[in-house]
Request: fold
Amino acid sequence: MKFLITFFCVTILSTQCVSNKLDKQSNNDNRKVVMVYKYYTRGFYREYHVQQNKVKTFLDYAKSKFTYREVVPIDWAKALDLLNKIDFKEFENLEAPSNDRHTDQIQHGELTIKINTSTFRSRSFDHGNPPDQIKALVTHLLYMSEDDAIQK
Reply:
């Protein structure tokens, strides 16, 4: 009888643990994530909207000219991994390491992360020189939006 009760308890507990893991995975899979990176200066504008299946590139301020590009699943997984390493409590207060954008020597860069209904926007920084905390993600997003990122 003790064996039967022990077996029953172990079975229920292991089933509970597996269902918790599945719930966490489905929550991560069901969240809608859009990463927006834009860089601009007077007379120039680029904005990338990176989603799970596509990258939409806006080529002008009016956002009337744009292109689409497919996203490779491996690249998307890496982007999510880099995104999970970011502390969103400090995200909006990250300081730029340089200020050349204020003298028009280089373009302004901005990163916006949209997760479901929450939006996190970074401060402006020099394109090509983002804060260290988001540098890997910005570099990967730029890579994903280039033609070389599409593996055929």
Summary: Strands lie at 33-41, 44-50, 54-58, 66-70, 108-115, 118-121, 125-126. DSSP finds four helices and seven strands in the chain.
